[in-house]
Amino acid sequence: MQIFRSQIGFLVLAVVLLAANESVAQRKTKVELVQAQSIKSDVNLYNGARRLIGNVKFKQDSAIMECDSAHFYSDRNMFDAFGHVHLYKLNNKNIDVRADFLRHDGDQKIAHFRHNVVLRDSNVILTTDSLDYNLQSDIGYYEHNGRIVDSLTVLTSVKGYYYHRQREVYFRKNVVIDHNSAEYQMFTDTIRYGLDTKIIDFFGPTEFYNDTNYMYARYGWYNTETELSMFKHDALFRNPNQTITCDSLMFDRLDESGTAYSNVVATDTVQNLVVKGDYVEIHKDPELLIVTDKAQIIYVAMGDSLYLHADTLKVCRDTSGLYRTFRAYWHVRAYKSDLQLQTDSIYFSMKDSVACFFGNPIFWVQGNQITTEYMEAYIKDNHLDKFKLYRSGMIVSPHDSIHYNQIKGAEMVGYLRNNDLYKVDVFKRAQTLYFPIDQGSIAGVSKGESTDLTLYLKDRQLKRLAYRAQTKSDMYPLDNLSENDMRLSGFSWFEQIRPKSPADIFIWENVESIPSSRRITMPTSSSDDTKKPQKPLPPNRKSGKPAGR
User: Fold this and answer.
1) Contact 334, 305 (CB under 8 A)
2) Least buried of 41, 73, 354, 440, by fewest C-beta within 10 Å?
3) Helix H segments across 273-350?
4) In total, how many domains does the chain have?
5) Domain containing 1: what range?
6) Above pLDDT 90, what percent of the chain?
7) Which of 98, 90, 158 is nearest to 133 (CA)?
């Protein structure tokens, strides 16, 4: 802030000093008395000045100065003017100054206006109680409060510098901008206002208010006609429901849309959402949010927030305008303490609370790995209620680093209660492979096939299987079983790419590019499904059927 102030202060001082130097070096001209109704000499006046009364008019170069009465010091090339003081230029109709008093120095060509000063420039009106105006450079400045009115905009400050030729006005110290009768207000330390462009450039901490929005930045500009603004350096936008911080923010007040750049953090206190990225677009009508470049969305929950990253995040309204839809696409990864995710893209609608996952999604849910080509997740009361897997779905749950319980089918439906998976329906070519536990040890490996089946789980452990139609199930001892005998076709365990912290959501690794040495996998071959492990268990003594049926 101090740096900006010093720079602007130096700039203004330099211009004023240059103007003063020019006036000293310029060709001197005499102040001419054009007219007066009465001229009196009075020894009581300072230095024997002549007293001029009635319709007094002076001229110096192209400047005309009029007043009711004056004290004229011709030998000193100056005068004091009283009452209805008016200055204008013959060659420039845009310069017009009025005041109650004027002291004009003809050698310096500087007019010192005092009391009820009004400067008009086209549609701009500057009022102050003290204004010094350089007739040579057409630069005016005040240091004891001033006010400019331009159409619907009112600007006030302690100090001001008016540059007629550059068509600019600088305001310094306690600057207040009031637009359209407090429709919005700006408070800052230093601004530059373009008389023709209608653009306000502000330097130093600046606050912007209206009835619903608040903005802050340390540098930027605002166009009073188009109502487009740019806020830079520690930019902040806030309304009753949202807060946005970023390095810079472009904002259109008319349609209430904006674009934020670099280190963007947008917080929605109503939805408990935090959006982060280096590029964020926000539109009000139609409602739209687009986030790219390190895009991240955080669903804030007590002690267990959900962190999700994608190349692009998009939130908008559906065609009815009643419900929000959410899209995340390309390189989607998410982390929550009890749920992690990697997929290609996501679509979610609040209308039906169904999330669709495309591009071979991988889920890790409380120790279970879920893979499929396409998945639908059904949300109820902000929690995952059930999910559906389509086309080659598989659920893998590790017993230890070697043995993995597996469920596979063309379609699956999983049901959760309190975030725990308690039931799974498997349809079309259902297959299971699991390791039953007997007295704390693995009793063998059970492999089953059925058209459809249902699994019941408790405390993340398989408790019961219900086969339906065309059932085939066998149990085999672990002795001499190969690794392939303990894997269903298409099995892969992707623990090494599972996000293990919020920071991991930005690390993407294609499944196809993972070397086989870094993952546990099983080739997808139909012959593997039909191959039977050796040494089946002996028949059950009571029923005469193989154990495990």
Assistant:
1) no
2) 440
3) none
4) 3
5) 1-26+117-123+132-212
6) 52
7) 98
